[in-house]
Amino acid sequence: MEDIGALESRILAALDRIGTAAGAKGGGDEQAALSKALAHEQAKNVELIDSARALKDRLDAEIAQLTDKLAAQTAQIEQLDTDLQRLRASNTQLREMNADMRQAITTGKFPEVADAAKDAEIAALAAQRAADAAEIEAVLGQLTPLLEEAAHAPG
Description:
Elements: H1 2-25, H2 28-107, H3 110-152
Helix pairs in contact: 1-2, 2-3
Keywords: Coiled coil
Organism: Yoonia rhodophyticola
Protein name: Colicin transporter
């Protein structure tokens, strides 16, 4: 933005110098034509500067929007990773409890191990549900903007 302002100042100063030099050298008709051309170029310059500013503002807004979207997706990925780690730990515990239960059945210690196995299975199911919910949330997070865009699309 500072570059645009600096360029604008330099261009306007150069155009003023050209206008001053033309005014000092030229005659009445020539000076009027040069002044008109100078005014036209200055107007085009202002339009270009305004257009560049508008473009920069639009790009800044898009960058901010994309940054927010990236942050939201990063948070979703982190939540999915956390739920996946919990699910893996629960499944590992469940496999260990099943192995212990098989061992207990062969040695006759079934009631104590059965309760622990049930607890491990409940924890694994809860972790699976949390992972599924996080995955659904991530999918909905991706679909919602697309559905809103389609709803507002012409036709």
